[in-house]
Each structure stands twice: as structure tokens, then as C-alpha cells.
Design brief:
Helix 6 packs across helix 7 (299-311). This protein is of the alpha/beta class. It contains 7 helices and 17 strands. A 9-stranded mixed β-sheet has the order 2-1-17-16-14-3-12-13-15. A 6-stranded antiparallel β-sheet has the order 5-6-7-10-9-8, with no helix packed on it. The protein has 2 domains: 3-63 and 143-325, QueA-like, CATH 3.40.1780; 67-136, QueA-like (Thrombin, subunit H, Beta Barrel). It is globular and about 60 Å long.
Length: 326
Amino acid sequence: MQTSDFEYELPPELIAQHPPAKRGDSRMMVVNRAEGRISHHHFAEFPDFVEKEDLLVLNDTRVVSARYFSNDGTQEILRVDVIGERRWKCLVKPGKRFKPGRTIEIGESVGTVVAVCEEGGERIIDFDKLPDESLHGHLALPPYIHRPDEVADKDRYQTVFANTSGAIAAPTAGLHFSEEMLARLPHTFVTLHVGIGTFRPVSSETLRDHRMHSERYELRPEVAAAIRESRRTIAIGTTAVRVLETCARNGGGVLAPGSGETDIFIFPPYEFKVVDALLTNFHLSKSTLLMLVSALAGKDLIFEAYRRAVEERYRFFSYGDCMLII
């Protein structure tokens, strides 16, 4: 398949720039694969679609404040990986300025560019001492949110169950859940630290030529056992899907616990080994996430769902409404 096969038109005013007034105050489209039926609901109805023998699988990663600005405001870095005691791999702006030997001052810290990565163009930066995240770190809100991060984002761009620090971006399907709703539902957690891949477009025209960036994950033995015993596995977000399907692939088709890095790229046609249903937000045109949901529900049905979402004025992307694929 071609990347251009996954392109759709989206009016820019449908891109959510702020979260809803409260968690869960969102619309929910339900896509029934067996019946080919699309219906419209509110997220408050989500528990009606969950049976007691089902198991929700959520990603408990915690978003870190990985975006930093120089003291004079002319330079910006996004920490994508910690590769030493005081050494970071970073995306940088403006790229032309960040040549080896270039320095950036952040608070009382001074970072020096020591290398440029051949693939991806990231810079390796050594610091005399690490910048204070609590004082100088900012959330790296997605580029389609056209505003700086605000105080409210520190809470709302984080799931209520976030536990393990390491993500650059939030697992956004989980943002809909309040503690009260989650307590009513059978659930468990995996971890995938959302990384630089979420900011990277598909660069090749043919899907099989695209290479995903690796992201760190963990599936604990007791969680794998609980998932195997459930009647139906409902993944909350595409990041949970990637963990489950990676661990099934590593287990020869059987879900096996493990940890490490995954670069799994799921696109049609694909036979899911663990995931039976998926709650997810609406995704960008030509993105790997749109390809993943198309693999689960079928491209034609997904594109009809997206057409109706635009028609019905759903809110799109990280702070937007959601879709339940059953």
C-alpha cells in the first residue's frame, strides 16, 4: 500500500486546541466491524460496551517536560533520549545553528553540541550540569496545537494513572478516563514511552519502506497472564496495541511478558494476535496511527468513519474526541 492511500481532508477548525472542560466530557464514535455500523455516543457511555470478563489495557507512561528554551529565547531543544549522565540526544531549532561546538544556555546549565546524528539529524549535547526540569522544562505539545503549553496542560496532558516517567507525548486515548470511571472497569497496565516517532511523518511512499523509531516498553508477567485469561482484550490507545502485538510477535504468536524496544509498524493487511477492541483518538492524515487503526477495522470502514466524523464536527487529535472499534 502507498502512504497517499491514507490521506484525508480535515478542516483546521476541527483540531482541538484545548482539552474539554473536564475529563471524559468528549464524544465517542463506535465502529462495529462485524456489522459495518457506525454510531455516535458520549464517552460517559463507554462502560456500557465493557463486560466483566473483558480487560482494558492502558499505557501508564508519564509525560516528561522535555522541551527547553535558551535563556535568550532564540534556541530550542527537545530531549528525545538520555544517553549518559549529562548527555542528551535532542531535536533542535534552528537546526543550522546547532553545529558541533555550539553551546546553549538554559538557566545555569550550559550544553555543548558534540555530534550530529546522521539519521534523523538529532544533536548529541553534553551539559556541564543538567537543566532543572521543574524550572525550565516545558511539555512538548504536538505541533498541531498552536499555542505554548499552559499550567493546565501539566494536569490535562497527563493521564490520571500515569506512573512511569519517560514519554515525550501522552498516550491520548487514556486522557479521557477519570479515576472514578477507571475504578469501575476491569483494567491493567503496560508501559510504552512514546518517543520521537510520534513527531515523524511517514517519509516513504511505499509503506513497507518506512522505518519506525524504537520506543521502550514493558509487559510484566502478571499482566500477561491476566490478559491471556480475559475474554476480550480492549486496548486503550495505539501505544498499548504496539506493546501487546510486539510481545505476541516475540512469543511466536502467544503473548509473552518482556521489556525492551519496539519498532513494530502495523498497517493493512495485519492479523492481530491479542487485541480484540480498541479505544483511540482520531489521527493525522497519512500517519502510522491511522494505518494501524485501518489494519484493525479495515481501511474503507475507517475512512467512512472519518468522513462522518468531519461531517458531524468531531474534535480531532490529542485533546479531541475518541473512537471505539469493536
